[in-house]
Each structure stands twice: as C-alpha cells, then as structure tokens.
Specification:
Blueprint lengths: L1 H20 L5 H12 L4 H19 L3 H6 L7 H11 L26 H10 L2 H15 L1 H14 L10 H8 L4 H21 L18
C-alpha cells in the first residue's frame, strides 16, 4: 500500500513540474514525465489492490487457506468464503486490531463484505489458476520469507499453549532472524503477493522481473 501512495505522490509531482516548467523542458524530459504520469494508479486500481490484499489475509487466517493459495486443494466454496468473511469481521472485536506477531487486519467490511465481492475480485485479478501460479513462484523466489509465513501461521496464529515461551520468539529463532523481521515479513507478505499477482501477465509463468515498476491493472 505504501508503494501505491508513493506512486500517487510522484505522479502528482510530475504533473506539477510539467505544468509549471513545460516551456523549459526538452522533448525527452517531457516524454519521461508523460511516462510517469501514465503509470499513476487509478483509484480503481488502488481499491483492487486493497481488496486482493484483504483476501490474501483471509486465506492466511483460514484452515487450508495457504493450500488454497497454492492450488494444492480446491478453491474455497461459497460456504467457505462466507465463513472467511465472518471470521475476518468478528462482531465482538474492533476492526483494524493486531494479533500476536503484528499482522494487521484491514477493515474488511469496506473491502470484501460478500461472497460476490470476493469472487469478483478473484476473477478480476486473473482467477485462481493465476493466483496459484504466482504464489508458487513466490516460494521459489523467497523461500526464507515463505518459511516465516508458514511457521507464523502454524505456531502463532493457532494459539497453541506457550508453556515454552513466546511462540513469536520461537518462530524467529527457528528461522534465524529477529522478532521484528517476523512481524515485518507477516505484515508485508499479503501486499507483496497482491502486487505480484496484479503485475504478472495472466496466463504466463511467474517472473520476478514483471513485478517492479508496474501499476495494478
């Protein structure tokens, strides 16, 4: 999400430079500025990114959700999607809270509030096959981060008895990193995967080079 905000800010700055200094700019400089302006994400793109981010977080919190993300089990049914939405927007606790490990829970009722909205986002980003393909690519490119994600979901989110100390600290020790690295990895994973899914050409194998510098479409 931070990348999206920065892109919007850079785009606004490029527009201002073109408006104020148009007469002083060379043709090459104008073309470069126009190229920047063309890549400014629209509000629709921004919302799609937010919605996909929320869906990935739902899958992280749901039983077999990671297996669904990787295509190792069938995609969620209508009933399972509704269960995810209910689990993600508990009536008894405020939205936007943090669980152990620092993972954020977005205000899902404004992003994904019905099964139809969930399914529409999946279709818009390329379908489950595309999502599975990019998710499997993530494991190959970032195996250490994936290990942190799976260990966090297995030992921290499940609220297993912590008689041996903090589960979060145990995950950090098992992966040879700090607790802060675990928190940062868990918080950034849904955003990074969402960006990769949106940036990767649909119908092609995942390519890391496709991720950088492209806005959501």
């Amino acid at each position: 999400m931070i990348d999206q905000i920065i892109a919007l800010q850079i785009g606004a700055l490029a527009k201002a430079i073109k408006r104020i200094h148009r007469r002083d700019l060379t043709d090459e400089e104008l073309l470069a500025i126009d190229d920047i302006i063309e890549q400014i994400p629209t509000r629709t793109d921004y919302r799609l990114f937010e919605q996909l981010d929320a869906i990935i977080q739902m899958l992280m919190d749901y039983p077999k959700g990671l297996s669904m993300l990787l295509g190792r089990v069938p995609p969620p049914t209508t009933e399972e999607i509704n269960e995810m939405i209910l689990l993600f927007t508990p009536v008894s606790s405020p939205l936007g809270v943090r669980v152990e490990g620092g993972v954020r829970l977005p205000q899902a009722e404004r992003l994904i509030y019905t099964e139809q909205a969930f399914s529409a986002v999946i279709a818009e980003v390329g379908g489950w096959r595309h999502i599975n393909e990019v998710a499997r690519g993530y494991i190959k490119v970032y195996p250490n981060a994936w290990s942190i994600v799976t260990d966090h979901i297995r030992w921290v989110k499940t609220k297993i008895t912590r008689v041996d100390g903090s589960s979060l600290k145990k995950v950090a020790e098992a992966n040879g990193c700090s607790v802060e690295t675990v928190r940062n990895t868990i918080n950034s994973f849904p955003q990074e995967l969402a960006q990769a899914i949106l940036a990767s050409p649909q119908g092609n194998e995942f390519e890391l080079g496709c991720v950088k510098g492209l806005s959501a479409i």
